[in-house]
Amino acid sequence: MLEPSLVRTVLDAALSTGADFAELFMEDRRDTSLVLQLNRLETVNSGRIHGAGVRVYVGLNAIYAYTNDTSREGLIACARQAASAVRERGRELAACAELTAMAVRDAHPVKLLPSRTDTRRKADVLRAANAAAREAGAEIVQVACTYRDSEQDVLIANSEGRFVTDRRVYTRLGCQAVAGNGTENQSGFEGPGALMGFELFESRVDPARVGREAARTAIEMLHAPVCPSGVMPVAIGNGFGGVIFHEACGHGLEATSVAFGTSVFCGKLGEQIASPCVTAVDDGTLPNEWGSENVDDEGTPTTKLVLIENGVLKNYMIDRLNGRRMGMAPTGSARRESYAYAPTSRMRNTYIAAGCDDEEEIISSMGDGLYAARMGGGSVDPATGEFNFAVQEGYLVKDGKITTPVRGASLIGKGADILMKIDRVGRDMRMAQGMCGSLSGSVPTNVGQPMIRVSSITVGGRA
Length: 463
Hints:
23 strands
């Protein structure tokens, strides 16, 4: 993308007023999206994002500037703009080290680049999902299907001599089905994706199954009575159930919060913060997974990071700048939406690891309670861990048996409390795909877990 000699010139310009570290991030990304609704292809859009950002450090402070002018003059002007905010007089100026290209093993091979795949094949994926959803029953009144792909090339270099390039290719299908009876509607959603090309639909994802599953959830919830409220044991299903750990606990383990003392998990490394049956991982190395990368957005090789091991807090997710603040090394967790954002610590593929409990026993031994098969959206306060999450698909459990589907349920509690109340962890860990928003924009993340059971949690309902 750029010659090392030019990159070094840019970094030297960024260091010219007294910064002690400089970094260049450049990207060239092509995005495509298709939307099918009302049984017809409504939109086909494509776009290109191209630009670069320059960041400088002065001690524990950082300045970031960005531009879409990646000519020699544009990059140097951007570097000087960042440098202009630094006024460290009377100190020896830092110099950029010799840049050394870092070899990166591509752990996420792509067989069919989306840009080389005919648009008609992409539209056929949407038509298959749409048809399957509508065939699920006459109660399906609306279906909307989306297809998205992205090809991103990045270059990352810094004044310590790092110089690395990487390519990230993402492909995703989404299907939302709405079931109605004339007086009310309920919806279901499926959104599988991966860090891979169009071969996603040859090896991992059946579009028709995606449509059927979205429709099944919508129809099931349309006929469900409202959920009773109260404090009860709750079993949370695998896959999308992992959103609770992601939101209520995962964000509190990011250095974005920990470095500033605003996380409930600050200062607790080595302490028991969860039940001994809980091991939680943030892994950016999983081949072709939605939240994976070869290197993070600071050029640090991605890692498998054990956050919690047998209930004991082992690690935080750390980017370079917050690592400075914490006196800890980065963990390959720095991410950003695009060159228009400075990076910070973010989750990648975050999950509760598989345990040794049998899923049938988890249900049969819980007495009366709730089975939250699929979680929806919600809100959380990272400083306290307090959360409120909707249950998209839920079922009452009576005498250890799954019985009536219920709707309108929500789970309310504190992340730190819930971690200690997990008393069962199943064997079948699955992940689900989503987009996570934070200080550095929206990035692809996986959430995951096997079925788990919380011995006691507040369930909000309408009955």
